Amino acid sequence: MKILYVAAEVSPLVKVGGLADVAGSLPQAIQRLGHDIRVVMPGYGRIDRDKYGIQPLVGPFRIPFQKGEEEITISHTKMNGGVPLYLVENQKFFARENVYGYEDDGLRFVLFGLAVVRMLEKIDFQPEVINCNDWHSALIVNLVNKLSEEEQAYQRVATVFTIHNLAYQGIFDPSVVSSVGLDESDLLELEKEREGKINFMARGISFSDVVSTVSEEYAKEIQSKEYGAGLEELLADKRDRLFGILN
């Protein structure tokens, strides 16, 4: 099976939290099972290109973004065990020291999502499954769902959305998604009820074929009001496609 694994951080290249550890180890385990898995992440400025043997692969190419265009380059290397790793490079939004914590984080990860989808058109890899992790890559699930209505290639792609930390949902003004052809008419019911804000996590849950979490217990807990962080009803509606898999 061909799998694209998408994460905002991947150890050992860059680590902020536990997501990096999972993204750095799980793809290797999946590869050992005989699957063709590739990983993609943003190319942050803090990553040591020389240390990890990172080289340009595709580009630069330009994609429409906001009211103009952004230049994207795809770089690549191999992780421990030989898993291919792609990095989405952009000088304005990713060539920074920190991973998170910027006022324009919403725009940054919208651009990341757009670039990942365009990357698939330019490299010789057509995934059967795209596994997105936490809110940073959730919009990719939404994009694939939208593209599948028009393009046959995306109709054959299954999406998995993995929740590592439900507390961080990626909530922004709807203007951040104008570049992907979404507007206020596309808001989820949950978003309409909450001041019309875009909720990336909610979109990952809503539009994915399968939702997974880091354990069976956590999968049960997040369907409750106590642990659901306001998304418990959405998760409960998805219960038949919600699975807990121990890391």
TrEMBL record:
Catalytic activity of the protein: [(1->4)-alpha-D-glucosyl](n) + ADP-alpha-D-glucose = [(1->4)-alpha-D-glucosyl](n+1) + ADP + H(+)
GO molecular function, one term: alpha-1,4-glucan glucosyltransferase (ADP-glucose donor) activity
Entry keyword Glycoprotein: no
Organism: Candidatus Hakubella thermalkaliphila
Catalytic activity, EC: 2.4.1.21
InterPro entries membership: Starch_synth_cat_dom
Transmembrane region(s): none
Enzyme class: transferase
Name of the protein in question: starch synthase
